[in-house]
Task: structure prediction
Amino acid sequence: MRPSSPSPPRRPAPVPPPPAGRLLVLSAAMGAGHDTVAAELVRRARARGGDAVVVDVLTLLPYGLGAGLRHFYRGSVRHFPWAYAALYRLFLRPGPGRRPSGTPLARLAGDRLSELAERTAADVVVPVFHLGAQLTGHLRARGRLSLPSAVLVIDFVPHRQWLHPGNDHYLCLTDASARAAHRSTGVPARACGPVVDPAFRAEAPGADGWRRLFARHGRGRTPVVLASGAWGVASHLDTTARLLAQNGFLPVVLCGADERLRRRLSGVPGTLALGWVTDMPGLLRTARALVDNAAGQTAVQALAAGLPVVGHRPIPGHGTDGVRAMAALGVSEAAADDADLLAALRRLTPDGPARRARTAAGQALFRVDPVDLALGLAFDPASGPARTARGRG
Result:
Protein backbone atom coordinates (compact mmCIF):
# COMPACT_ATOMS: atom_id res chain seq x y z
CA MET A 1 0.00 0.00 0.00
CA ARG A 2 1.44 3.28 -1.11
CA PRO A 3 1.90 5.73 1.76
CA SER A 4 -0.20 8.77 1.47
CA SER A 5 1.60 12.00 0.68
CA PRO A 6 1.56 14.58 3.43
CA SER A 7 -1.14 17.19 3.05
CA PRO A 8 0.10 20.75 2.51
CA PRO A 9 0.16 22.88 5.64
CA ARG A 10 -2.97 24.91 6.15
CA ARG A 11 -2.68 28.64 6.21
CA PRO A 12 -4.21 30.20 9.28
CA ALA A 13 -7.53 31.74 8.55
CA PRO A 14 -7.40 35.56 8.49
CA VAL A 15 -8.80 37.19 11.58
CA PRO A 16 -11.82 39.22 10.51
CA PRO A 17 -12.25 42.72 11.91
CA PRO A 18 -14.85 43.01 14.65
CA PRO A 19 -18.39 43.77 13.49
CA ALA A 20 -19.46 47.36 13.10
CA GLY A 21 -20.96 48.20 16.44
CA ARG A 22 -21.96 51.14 18.59
CA LEU A 23 -19.71 53.01 21.00
CA LEU A 24 -20.80 55.03 24.01
CA VAL A 25 -18.01 57.57 24.48
CA LEU A 26 -17.62 59.38 27.81
CA SER A 27 -15.95 62.74 27.25
CA ALA A 28 -15.77 66.08 29.10
CA ALA A 29 -15.61 69.70 27.94
CA MET A 30 -12.40 70.41 29.85
CA GLY A 31 -10.72 72.42 27.14
CA ALA A 32 -11.09 70.86 23.69
CA GLY A 33 -8.81 67.81 23.79
CA HIS A 34 -11.21 65.20 25.18
CA ASP A 35 -14.03 66.27 22.86
CA THR A 36 -11.67 66.28 19.86
CA VAL A 37 -10.73 62.66 20.56
CA ALA A 38 -14.39 61.74 21.08
CA ALA A 39 -15.38 63.31 17.75
CA GLU A 40 -12.68 61.33 15.95
CA LEU A 41 -13.92 58.10 17.51
CA VAL A 42 -17.41 58.92 16.24
CA ARG A 43 -16.06 59.57 12.73
CA ARG A 44 -14.15 56.29 12.69
CA ALA A 45 -17.05 54.24 14.04
CA ARG A 46 -19.40 55.63 11.39
CA ALA A 47 -16.84 55.21 8.62
CA ARG A 48 -16.81 51.46 9.29
CA GLY A 49 -20.63 51.26 9.20
CA GLY A 50 -21.27 51.52 12.93
CA ASP A 51 -22.14 54.41 15.16
CA ALA A 52 -21.11 56.19 18.34
CA VAL A 53 -22.80 58.39 20.90
CA VAL A 54 -20.85 60.94 22.95
CA VAL A 55 -21.91 62.15 26.39
CA ASP A 56 -20.18 64.71 28.57
CA VAL A 57 -19.75 62.83 31.85
CA LEU A 58 -19.89 66.13 33.75
CA THR A 59 -23.51 66.56 32.64
CA LEU A 60 -24.38 63.26 34.35
CA LEU A 61 -23.41 64.62 37.76
CA PRO A 62 -26.30 66.02 39.82
CA TYR A 63 -26.63 69.36 41.63
CA GLY A 64 -24.58 71.30 39.08
CA LEU A 65 -21.39 69.59 40.23
CA GLY A 66 -20.12 69.09 36.69
CA ALA A 67 -20.33 72.78 35.81
CA GLY A 68 -18.69 73.62 39.11
CA LEU A 69 -15.78 71.29 38.42
CA ARG A 70 -15.28 72.77 34.96
CA HIS A 71 -15.26 76.35 36.26
CA PHE A 72 -12.90 75.45 39.11
CA TYR A 73 -10.44 73.67 36.82
CA ARG A 74 -10.48 76.43 34.22
CA GLY A 75 -10.02 79.15 36.80
CA SER A 76 -7.22 77.37 38.62
CA VAL A 77 -5.11 76.52 35.56
CA ARG A 78 -5.55 80.02 34.12
CA HIS A 79 -5.22 82.19 37.21
CA PHE A 80 -4.00 80.04 40.13
CA PRO A 81 -1.70 77.36 38.68
CA TRP A 82 -0.22 76.74 42.14
CA ALA A 83 -3.69 75.58 43.26
CA TYR A 84 -3.95 73.09 40.41
CA ALA A 85 -0.40 71.89 41.10
CA ALA A 86 -1.38 71.17 44.72
CA LEU A 87 -4.56 69.41 43.60
CA TYR A 88 -2.58 67.28 41.17
CA ARG A 89 -0.12 66.25 43.87
CA LEU A 90 -2.95 65.33 46.22
CA PHE A 91 -5.34 63.49 43.89
CA LEU A 92 -3.64 62.64 40.62
CA ARG A 93 0.12 62.23 40.57
CA PRO A 94 1.17 58.63 39.83
CA GLY A 95 3.00 56.72 42.53
CA PRO A 96 2.53 54.58 45.62
CA GLY A 97 0.62 55.50 48.73
CA ARG A 98 -3.02 56.03 49.55
CA ARG A 99 -4.63 59.22 48.31
CA PRO A 100 -8.19 60.48 47.85
CA SER A 101 -10.11 58.72 45.08
CA GLY A 102 -12.44 60.17 42.48
CA THR A 103 -14.78 57.20 42.77
CA PRO A 104 -17.17 58.78 45.34
CA LEU A 105 -17.79 61.66 42.94
CA ALA A 106 -18.19 59.32 39.97
CA ARG A 107 -20.75 57.23 41.85
CA LEU A 108 -23.16 60.17 41.72
CA ALA A 109 -23.49 59.67 37.95
CA GLY A 110 -23.92 55.89 38.14
CA ASP A 111 -27.68 55.63 37.68
CA ARG A 112 -27.71 58.05 34.77
CA LEU A 113 -24.93 56.23 32.95
CA SER A 114 -26.57 52.84 33.45
CA GLU A 115 -29.82 54.18 32.01
CA LEU A 116 -27.98 55.80 29.11
CA ALA A 117 -26.17 52.58 28.27
CA GLU A 118 -29.48 50.74 28.02
CA ARG A 119 -31.16 53.50 26.03
CA THR A 120 -28.40 53.84 23.42
CA ALA A 121 -28.05 50.07 22.87
CA ALA A 122 -24.27 50.50 22.84
CA ASP A 123 -21.87 47.56 22.60
CA VAL A 124 -18.96 49.07 24.55
CA VAL A 125 -18.35 52.19 26.62
CA VAL A 126 -15.15 54.13 25.97
CA PRO A 127 -14.16 56.76 28.56
CA VAL A 128 -11.75 59.39 27.20
CA PHE A 129 -11.85 61.41 30.45
CA HIS A 130 -10.56 60.19 33.78
CA LEU A 131 -13.78 60.73 35.74
CA GLY A 132 -15.53 58.55 33.17
CA ALA A 133 -12.96 55.82 33.80
CA GLN A 134 -13.66 55.98 37.53
CA LEU A 135 -17.38 55.75 36.83
CA THR A 136 -17.22 52.75 34.47
CA GLY A 137 -14.73 50.96 36.72
CA HIS A 138 -17.01 51.40 39.73
CA LEU A 139 -20.13 50.23 37.87
CA ARG A 140 -18.42 47.23 36.27
CA ALA A 141 -16.96 46.16 39.62
CA ARG A 142 -20.43 46.34 41.19
CA GLY A 143 -22.17 44.51 38.34
CA ARG A 144 -24.24 47.58 37.48
CA LEU A 145 -22.98 48.04 33.92
CA SER A 146 -23.47 45.24 31.42
CA LEU A 147 -21.24 46.78 28.75
CA PRO A 148 -17.49 46.16 28.73
CA SER A 149 -15.40 49.28 29.29
CA ALA A 150 -12.32 50.16 27.23
CA VAL A 151 -10.64 53.21 28.75
CA LEU A 152 -8.79 55.34 26.18
CA VAL A 153 -6.09 57.20 28.14
CA ILE A 154 -5.21 60.33 26.15
CA ASP A 155 -2.41 61.48 28.50
CA PHE A 156 1.19 60.36 28.07
CA VAL A 157 1.30 59.65 31.81
CA PRO A 158 -1.85 57.90 33.11
CA HIS A 159 -2.44 59.60 36.45
CA ARG A 160 -4.21 57.90 39.32
CA GLN A 161 -7.73 58.99 38.44
CA TRP A 162 -7.54 57.22 35.07
CA LEU A 163 -6.95 53.92 36.83
CA HIS A 164 -9.65 51.67 38.27
CA PRO A 165 -9.39 47.85 38.46
CA GLY A 166 -13.05 47.38 37.56
CA ASN A 167 -12.51 48.38 33.93
CA ASP A 168 -12.07 45.70 31.28
CA HIS A 169 -9.24 47.12 29.19
CA TYR A 170 -6.89 50.10 28.91
CA LEU A 171 -5.86 51.62 25.57
CA CYS A 172 -2.86 53.90 25.96
CA LEU A 173 -0.62 56.19 23.93
CA THR A 174 2.60 54.26 24.52
CA ASP A 175 3.95 50.93 25.72
CA ALA A 176 5.26 52.61 28.87
CA SER A 177 1.86 54.02 29.79
CA ALA A 178 0.19 50.67 29.03
CA ARG A 179 2.63 48.92 31.38
CA ALA A 180 1.94 51.51 34.06
CA ALA A 181 -1.83 51.06 33.70
CA HIS A 182 -1.51 47.27 33.91
CA ARG A 183 0.79 47.40 36.95
CA SER A 184 -1.61 49.66 38.80
CA THR A 185 -4.87 47.87 37.97
CA GLY A 186 -4.07 44.31 36.89
CA VAL A 187 -6.30 44.99 33.88
CA PRO A 188 -5.14 44.14 30.32
CA ALA A 189 -3.61 47.20 28.66
CA ARG A 190 -2.00 47.87 25.31
CA ALA A 191 -0.65 50.78 23.29
CA CYS A 192 -2.69 52.02 20.36
CA GLY A 193 -1.08 55.44 19.88
CA PRO A 194 -2.77 58.84 19.71
CA VAL A 195 -6.20 59.34 18.14
CA VAL A 196 -5.85 62.01 15.47
CA ASP A 197 -7.90 62.91 12.40
CA PRO A 198 -6.13 61.49 9.30
CA ALA A 199 -6.27 64.98 7.75
CA PHE A 200 -3.16 65.78 9.80
CA ARG A 201 -1.20 63.13 7.91
CA ALA A 202 -2.43 64.08 4.42
CA GLU A 203 -1.70 66.95 2.08
CA ALA A 204 -3.39 70.04 3.49
CA PRO A 205 -5.61 71.96 1.04
CA GLY A 206 -5.20 75.13 3.11
CA ALA A 207 -1.39 75.08 3.14
CA ASP A 208 -1.00 77.71 0.42
CA GLY A 209 -3.14 80.17 2.34
CA TRP A 210 -0.99 79.69 5.45
CA ARG A 211 2.20 80.17 3.44
CA ARG A 212 0.91 83.47 2.09
CA LEU A 213 -0.07 84.58 5.59
CA PHE A 214 3.35 83.67 6.98
CA ALA A 215 5.12 85.43 4.12
CA ARG A 216 3.08 88.59 4.67
CA HIS A 217 3.76 88.71 8.41
CA GLY A 218 7.13 86.99 8.65
CA ARG A 219 9.16 88.56 5.87
CA GLY A 220 11.33 85.47 5.58
CA ARG A 221 11.32 84.47 9.25
CA THR A 222 10.68 80.82 10.17
CA PRO A 223 7.10 80.22 11.40
CA VAL A 224 6.91 78.49 14.81
CA VAL A 225 3.55 77.77 16.47
CA LEU A 226 3.08 78.50 20.20
CA ALA A 227 0.17 76.56 21.71
CA SER A 228 -1.97 77.59 24.67
CA GLY A 229 -4.94 75.21 24.37
CA ALA A 230 -8.59 76.03 23.88
CA TRP A 231 -8.64 78.27 26.96
CA GLY A 232 -5.47 80.23 26.29
CA VAL A 233 -3.59 78.69 29.23
CA ALA A 234 0.13 79.42 29.12
CA SER A 235 2.89 81.05 31.14
CA HIS A 236 4.72 84.13 29.82
CA LEU A 237 3.56 83.71 26.23
CA ASP A 238 4.44 87.31 25.43
CA THR A 239 8.00 86.78 26.69
CA THR A 240 8.44 83.66 24.58
CA ALA A 241 6.93 85.33 21.51
CA ARG A 242 9.24 88.32 21.90
CA LEU A 243 12.26 86.01 22.28
CA LEU A 244 11.43 84.14 19.08
CA ALA A 245 10.68 87.31 17.08
CA GLN A 246 14.05 88.77 18.07
CA ASN A 247 15.90 85.64 16.96
CA GLY A 248 14.72 85.08 13.40
CA PHE A 249 11.43 83.27 13.99
CA LEU A 250 7.81 84.20 13.32
CA PRO A 251 5.90 83.28 16.51
CA VAL A 252 2.40 82.12 15.52
CA VAL A 253 0.50 82.14 18.81
CA LEU A 254 -2.67 80.06 19.21
CA CYS A 255 -4.82 81.92 21.72
CA GLY A 256 -7.83 79.59 21.53
CA ALA A 257 -11.08 81.20 22.64
CA ASP A 258 -9.31 83.85 24.75
CA GLU A 259 -9.86 87.06 22.78
CA ARG A 260 -8.23 89.17 25.47
CA LEU A 261 -5.05 87.08 25.13
CA ARG A 262 -5.12 87.44 21.35
CA ARG A 263 -5.37 91.23 21.58
CA ARG A 264 -2.51 91.36 24.07
CA LEU A 265 -0.23 89.13 21.99
CA SER A 266 -1.05 91.11 18.84
CA GLY A 267 0.81 94.00 20.48
CA VAL A 268 4.10 92.05 20.64
CA PRO A 269 6.21 93.20 17.65
CA GLY A 270 6.78 90.54 15.02
CA THR A 271 4.06 88.22 16.38
CA LEU A 272 1.10 86.68 14.55
CA ALA A 273 -1.59 86.08 17.20
CA LEU A 274 -4.51 83.89 16.14
CA GLY A 275 -7.87 83.19 17.74
CA TRP A 276 -9.78 79.95 17.22
CA VAL A 277 -8.24 78.09 14.24
CA THR A 278 -10.45 75.75 12.21
CA ASP A 279 -7.75 74.58 9.78
CA MET A 280 -5.28 73.04 12.20
CA PRO A 281 -4.02 70.45 9.65
CA GLY A 282 -3.05 73.22 7.24
CA LEU A 283 -1.37 75.28 9.93
CA LEU A 284 0.64 72.41 11.43
CA ARG A 285 1.74 71.06 8.06
CA THR A 286 2.99 74.51 7.03
CA ALA A 287 4.80 75.69 10.17
CA ARG A 288 8.28 74.45 11.07
CA ALA A 289 7.90 73.57 14.78
CA LEU A 290 5.48 73.61 17.70
CA VAL A 291 6.34 75.06 21.10
CA ASP A 292 4.05 73.11 23.43
CA ASN A 293 3.21 73.37 27.12
CA ALA A 294 0.74 70.54 27.79
CA ALA A 295 1.56 67.36 25.82
CA GLY A 296 -2.09 67.33 24.81
CA GLN A 297 -4.01 67.04 21.59
CA THR A 298 -2.20 69.85 19.75
CA ALA A 299 1.10 68.09 20.46
CA VAL A 300 -0.02 64.74 19.03
CA GLN A 301 -1.62 66.48 16.05
CA ALA A 302 1.79 68.04 15.39
CA LEU A 303 3.45 64.62 15.60
CA ALA A 304 0.95 63.28 13.05
CA ALA A 305 1.66 66.24 10.76
CA GLY A 306 5.42 65.65 10.90
CA LEU A 307 6.05 68.81 12.91
CA PRO A 308 8.83 68.77 15.54
CA VAL A 309 7.61 69.51 19.07
CA VAL A 310 9.57 71.36 21.76
CA GLY A 311 8.14 71.47 25.28
CA HIS A 312 8.68 74.77 27.09
CA ARG A 313 7.19 76.32 30.26
CA PRO A 314 4.72 73.42 30.76
CA ILE A 315 1.55 73.97 32.73
CA PRO A 316 1.65 72.31 36.16
CA GLY A 317 0.53 68.78 36.89
CA HIS A 318 -0.27 66.58 33.93
CA GLY A 319 1.29 69.11 31.52
CA THR A 320 4.68 68.93 33.18
CA ASP A 321 4.56 65.12 33.45
CA GLY A 322 3.46 64.78 29.84
CA VAL A 323 6.12 67.10 28.42
CA ARG A 324 8.81 65.17 30.28
CA ALA A 325 7.39 61.82 29.14
CA MET A 326 7.32 62.89 25.50
CA ALA A 327 10.95 63.99 25.68
CA ALA A 328 11.97 60.74 27.40
CA LEU A 329 10.34 58.80 24.56
CA GLY A 330 12.38 60.74 22.02
CA VAL A 331 9.35 62.12 20.19
CA SER A 332 9.97 65.71 21.33
CA GLU A 333 12.47 67.86 23.19
CA ALA A 334 12.08 69.62 26.51
CA ALA A 335 13.64 73.08 26.75
CA ALA A 336 14.57 74.00 30.31
CA ASP A 337 15.17 77.66 29.52
CA ASP A 338 15.18 80.20 26.70
CA ALA A 339 18.65 79.20 25.50
CA ASP A 340 17.55 75.55 25.24
CA LEU A 341 14.45 76.60 23.33
CA LEU A 342 16.39 78.61 20.74
CA ALA A 343 18.98 75.84 20.35
CA ALA A 344 16.28 73.21 19.80
CA LEU A 345 14.43 75.33 17.25
CA ARG A 346 17.61 76.15 15.34
CA ARG A 347 18.40 72.44 15.17
CA LEU A 348 14.91 71.16 14.28
CA THR A 349 13.37 73.76 11.96
CA PRO A 350 15.77 73.31 9.00
CA ASP A 351 15.53 70.18 6.88
CA GLY A 352 18.16 67.71 7.96
CA PRO A 353 18.89 64.55 9.95
CA ALA A 354 17.80 65.97 13.33
CA ARG A 355 14.39 67.01 12.00
CA ARG A 356 13.86 63.75 10.11
CA ALA A 357 14.77 61.62 13.13
CA ARG A 358 12.47 63.55 15.46
CA THR A 359 9.46 63.48 13.11
CA ALA A 360 9.96 59.77 12.33
CA ALA A 361 9.95 58.97 16.05
CA GLY A 362 6.73 60.92 16.52
CA GLN A 363 4.92 59.29 13.65
CA ALA A 364 5.93 55.82 14.87
CA LEU A 365 3.59 56.32 17.84
CA PHE A 366 0.52 55.86 15.62
CA ARG A 367 -0.27 52.15 15.62
CA VAL A 368 -3.74 50.66 15.95
CA ASP A 369 -7.25 52.04 15.59
CA PRO A 370 -8.72 52.00 19.11
CA VAL A 371 -12.21 51.58 17.62
CA ASP A 372 -11.15 48.14 16.38
CA LEU A 373 -9.75 47.29 19.81
CA ALA A 374 -12.80 48.53 21.69
CA LEU A 375 -15.25 46.70 19.45
CA GLY A 376 -13.09 43.59 19.55
CA LEU A 377 -13.56 43.69 23.31
CA ALA A 378 -17.30 44.19 22.90
CA PHE A 379 -17.71 41.11 20.73
CA ASP A 380 -15.27 38.92 22.67
CA PRO A 381 -17.25 36.14 24.41
CA ALA A 382 -14.93 36.45 27.42
CA SER A 383 -16.25 39.97 28.00
CA GLY A 384 -19.61 40.76 29.43
CA PRO A 385 -21.56 40.90 32.66
CA ALA A 386 -19.64 37.96 34.15
CA ARG A 387 -16.52 40.08 34.26
CA THR A 388 -17.72 42.27 37.09
CA ALA A 389 -15.65 41.28 40.08
CA ARG A 390 -12.17 42.59 39.13
CA GLY A 391 -12.15 45.26 41.79
CA ARG A 392 -14.18 47.21 44.21
CA GLY A 393 -14.70 50.93 44.29
